[in-house]
Amino acid sequence: MGYAYATLMLLAAASACFILDFNLPNIHGFTLIHLLIPVTLVSLWVAFRAIARKDFVTHRITMQSLYVGACLIAGGFTLLPSRYLGNLIWREKLGWF
What are the CA-CA distances from residue 16 to residues 3, 56, 64 (Å)? Predict the structure, then answer.
């Protein structure tokens, strides 16, 4: 499961480079949430280096931090009503058309 999680996080970070938003304050379509892309890539690198050195404590802490930062925090920002995906979800659930 760890290999699958790391692979999916790598793919998510890579694909996020192609998701641009020109409605929010941005620089060439990149908003503040795009700052999590290098954070994710660096965290994966630190976790891989730690596991290669058999430093299981650092690996565990890094992967747990990656989960909280990349999944919970980024997911929370993605689901805000002002964002595209959040707008789709909240309009449908609340019946706003």
Answer: 20, 29, 21
Amino acid (one-letter) located at 79: L
> Predicted confidence band at 17 (pLDDT cuts at 50, 70, 90)?
confident
* Cβ atoms within 10 Å of 53's Cβ, excluding its own: 10
Q: Are 35 and 16 in contact (CB under 8 A)?
A: no
Q: Which two tokens stand for residue 22?
A: 């020109």
The pTM is what? 0.73
What does the angle CA 29 – CA 34 – CA 36 come to, to the nearest 5 degrees?
175
Q: Which tens digit of pLDDT belongs to each residue from 47-95?
A: 999 999 999 999 999 999 998 887 788 888 888 877 778 888 877 655 5
Sign (positive or negative) of CA dihedral 47, 53, 54, 56: negative
